[in-house]
């Protein structure tokens, strides 16, 4: 009898849930709700929001401004200012924990620290954070530290993308601490991320196969997959039930399942059902 | 022809040199100069200071108080206060970099941080630093972090013993950064220590044998020996020229020499001469 275990902590975090709820609620109130980009990094959620009538736009416009929904990853201040000027009604669906990171970064800069953001290059959340300070240095990988900070800095102030890999942040901080006289660090990796990552550091050792449900565009899901794969090569990321392959389970007695913070429950259920169907065949 | 290389940075650091110079100067001015313990952790220096007439005492006294020389490692505030009350003339030979650590620790506590001192249990400098704050946690080893800080703390403020092993401090900080919301870290490992340690991380790879000159009571010398031995098993610590053994050099073509911050030049010269004598025999 093959055993299936779903991670205790997986799927929608409260920030994503709140953003999706806000979007659906606004769509009911008005047929002119827009967003600058996708609400979260998951195709199924994007489709649902699109079907509810919320439109994705690429830039703000003074023609018929409606409700502007600011997405879960947070936004640069210029968007708030321009939207206000153009007459949009702003509904801020930024994750409150991300807004806190903006505040920490601003405070560090005001206090004279050179701001370092540990986060993925080009990620919406990281771009958002860096927009809230005048000058920041973004560092994704420990190998990049020397190039990004070629000489000693007096004061470094550090914040971290909410869904970063803790071990990656530790390696970067280790290098930063010997590059400055004074370092101030805010542990801004969010609690859901910590819980998900803690489980994905034990589950792959306790199960023969690990399935990670989530979009390939989702950085936090990708991170779960990477951690899992480093501990158990039989780790597979899937976007939905159809991606699950029969041969993965041929020699498996125990199967662990987790999901990224932007993966909705109905996808997790679909994946579990598909696995059950396969192993009961 | 065997090659001998002396480390670019070795022997007396400026803090030790200043303390020794102050002691000898005071001994010329008065025959009632006392210290609470040894001036630095080196028998040869202690002997020289003793011969100059400076006495080591175990406690302050109101009988015939003379000049009290405060040692290089720094002192708790109570000693300053009591010595003043009893009528001593205080000559502070504390390393200025250590006095700076006291100041950082006090500032962290005032600003609401729980103070952590990364340093050797029982070391004079560490005891001195902890005496300057009301409550501190001393951590020597990464393995002790969980026991010393069993649950999450809001704000951790960290200073480091001036002669700590940088890699040890990095491992401890790595663990501390995920145990708090906010961490403030002062890189108080002194420049001489950094220079000595940087060289002892390359020299053992470039030489067949490494000789480290310094007392076995000196924490910073012991640290150089440990680092060297981890990179080259043919690493030997000696207190003086007489400790050097002929058989160490039998198969050696290149010999590297370094010395702790409390090792005087005349001992380094003695060790080099003894090695020269052996290999030229």
Write the layout of secondary structure elements.
The structure is a homodimer of 281-residue chains.
Chain A (H helix, E strand, L loop, with lengths): L2 E4 L7 H16 L3 E3 L7 H9 L3 E2 L10 E4 L6 H10 L2 E4 L3 H15 L3 E5 L5 H7 L5 E4 L5 H4 L4 E8 L5 H11 L3 E7 L4 H10 L2 H4 L2 E5 L5 H13 L3 E4 L15 E6 L5 H16 L1
Parallel strand pairs in A: 1-12, 2-3, 2-4, 4-5, 6-7, 6-8, 8-9, 10-11, 10-12
Account of the 3D structure:
The structure is a homodimer of 281-residue chains. Chain A has 3 domains: 3-11 and 192-280, 4-hydroxy-3-methylbut-2-enyl diphosphate reductase, catalytic domain (Cobalt-precorrin-4 Transmethylase, domain 1), CATH 3.40.1010; 14-94, Rossmann fold; 97-189, Cobalt-precorrin-4 Transmethylase, domain 1 (3-Layer(aba) Sandwich), CATH 3.40.1010.20. The longest helix of chain A is centred in the first third of the chain and has 16 residues, at 14-29. In chain A, the strands form 3 sheets. Chain A has a 4-stranded parallel β-sheet, with helices on both faces. A 4-stranded parallel β-sheet of chain A has the order 3-2-4-5, sandwiched between helices. The first copy, chain A, has helices at 14-29, 43-51, 77-86, 96-110, 124-130, 145-148, 166-176, 191-200, 203-206, 219-231, 265-280; strands at residues 3-6, 33-35, 55-56, 67-70, 89-92, 114-118, 136-139, 153-160, 180-186, 209-213, 235-238, 254-259. In chain A, strand 8, helix 7 (166-176) and strand 9 form a beta-alpha-beta unit. Helices cover 41% and strands 20% of the residues of chain A. The first copy, chain A, is flat and about 60 Å long. The A-B interface holds A 166, 169-170, 173-174, 177-178, 180-187 and B 166, 169-170, 173-174, 177-178, 180-187. Strand 9 (180-186) of chain A pairs antiparallel with strand 9 of chain B, so a sheet runs across the interface.
